[in-house]
Amino acid sequence: MSAKNPGGFTAEERAAMREHARERKAEERARKSREEGERAVLAKISEMSEPDRTMAERLHEIVMQNAPELTPRTWYGMPAYARDGRVLCFFQSAQKFKTRYATLGFSDAAKLDDGAMWPTSFALKELSAAEEARIIGLLKKALG
Fold first, then answer.
1. Tens of pLDDT, residues 40-71
2. 3-state DSSP call for residue 63?
3. To the nearest 10°, the Cα dihedral for 53, 54, 58, 59?
4. How far is CA 14 from the centre of its chain?
5. pTM of the full predicted structure?
6. 129-135 — which CB contacts under 8 Å span 24+ positions?
7. Predicted confidence (pLDDT) per residue in 13-26, tens digit
8. Where does the chain have alpha helices with state H?
9. CA-to-CA distance for 39 and 95, rounded, in angstroms?
10. Which of 114, 115, 116, 119 has its CA nearest to residue 89?
11. Whole-angstrom Cα Rg for the chain
């Protein structure tokens, strides 16, 4: 309480409460956006045929467990994962463009730089423990 405003809040206290309310609203919008994004990603994955569906499901688990700061969303109709609104990586099923393999791709936002030339897309035919370990390493480097 202030001496000038007995029983009330000071201007600073009211400003702090308004700021806290703005922060709570922003957190709620981010949570809803993340939930909506994850629903959209899971819906896209469920539309895929095998073996892409199983790989996409596992890739989703890997990203969520090892890069929780990424937000799931769709990108050109593909499952993708973004940081600060920018897509960092995505999964393209083989059926998307009728190719013989699925693709794990990284955008220019990923920090995979290695000299003057480096890969940003990786063909996926299956996900064994070795591929999963490599993906985790790529995620960590990309977030670097």
1. 999 999 999 999 999 999 999 999 999 999 99
2. helix
3. -40
4. 35
5. 0.82
6. 132/58, 132/62, 135/59, 135/62, 135/104
7. 888 889 888 878 77
8. 11-47, 52-66, 129-143
9. 21
10. 119
11. 21
